Every structure is written in structure tokens, then in C-alpha cells.
């Protein structure tokens, strides 16, 4: 899709910008915008039994993602839940709730502080859930936060 499978590594600007968890960087591969995000690794001991830390880390990661999205001038943000899959650690069951809460907090913080925030209100957000068994939990959590 992006034509980067043969690339030995990500572009230098991406590597330089995304060296720490929660950082995000927009990069165009031809005409395709991609936001690279260093997802918090929720398996790390700093997050063990620390749900407030998890929510804070996800909020920061989504806020950084929204800021990069606003720089892209695109109208649709399509993304996976940050820290899903192998990075979710002990929070697999809670990740839909954390994701929805973090998205809402990040959205509200971005709208309150970013000069181009009106574009964020008008954008389309597509959250890609690949495991069919997780879809209902994400739909319920998102519905609860954004109803």
C-alpha cells in the first residue's frame, strides 16, 4: 500500500521524532499521509496496576496523533487503537474503555489548545478493530464517551 516493504528502515525524520513513547510524526509516502506513533508499551512495569498512568499515556499519544493529523490537511484519520495487540499487557480487557476515554480527553484538550482545532471537529475518525470479538466492546466504550 505504501510501497515501503523494501525500505531498510523508517525515514530519518520519523526515527528522529519518534524516539520516545507517546511521540507521533506525520510523514508522506508519496501522496499517502501516515502518522507514526510510539505506542506506550503497557507491559512495562511502570504501568503495572497503574490504570491512571495508562489513561494518561494513551491520552498524550492520541493528543500527539491529533496534532500531527491537523498538520496533514487530510479529512479522515484512520487508525488502530494505540497500544493494542502485543503492547496491551494486562489491560487487554480494559483497552476499549481506556481507548475511548483517552480519545475523548485528547480530543477535548486538542480542541481547547490547537489553533486548527475546528478541523478536528469536522474530521472523520475511523478506528480499525481487527479482532471481531473486540468490536462490540469498542463500540460500547466509544458510544458511552461520545454519546
What does this structure look like?
There is one protein chain. This protein starts with 11 loop residues before the first helix and ends with a helix. The model has no long low-confidence stretch (mean pLDDT 90). Helix content is 46%, strand content 14%. It has 5 helices and 4 strands; from the N terminus they run αββαβααβα. The protein has 147 residues and is α+β, with helices and mostly antiparallel strands. The strands form 2 sheets. The protein has a two-stranded antiparallel ribbon. A two-stranded parallel sheet has the order 3-4. The chain is globular and about 40 Å long. It has helices at residues 12-17, 51-72, 95-113, 117-122, 132-146, and strands spanning 24-29, 32-37, 76-79, 124-127.
Question: What descriptive keywords fit this protein?
Answer:
147 residues; alpha+beta; two-stranded antiparallel ribbon; two-stranded parallel sheet; 5 helices; 4 strands; 46% helix; globular
Amino acid at each position: 500500500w505504501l510501497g515501503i516493504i523494501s525500505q531498510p528502515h523508517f525515514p530519518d525524520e520519523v526515527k528522529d521524532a519518534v524516539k520516545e513513547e507517546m511521540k507521533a510524526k506525520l510523514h508522506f509516502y508519496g501522496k499517502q499521509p501516515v502518522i507514526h506513533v510510539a505506542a506506550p508499551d503497557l507491559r512495562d512495569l511502570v504501568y503495572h496496576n497503574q490504570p491512571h498512568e495508562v489513561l494518561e499515556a494513551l491520552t498524550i499519544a492520541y493528543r500527539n496523533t491529533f496534532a500531527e493529523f491537523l498538520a496533514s490537511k487530510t479529512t479522515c484519520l484512520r487508525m488502530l487503537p494505540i497500544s493494542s495487540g502485543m503492547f496491551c499487557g494486562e489491560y487487554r480487557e480494559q483497552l476499549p474503555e481506556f481507548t475511548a476515554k483517552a480519545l475523548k480527553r485528547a480530543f477535548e484538550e486538542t480542541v481547547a489548545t490547537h489553533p486548527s482545532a475546528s478541523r478536528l471537529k469536522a474530521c472523520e475518525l475511523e478506528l480499525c478493530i481487527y479482532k471481531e470479538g473486540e468490536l462490540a466492546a469498542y463500540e460500547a466504550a466509544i458510544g458511552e464517551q461520545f454519546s
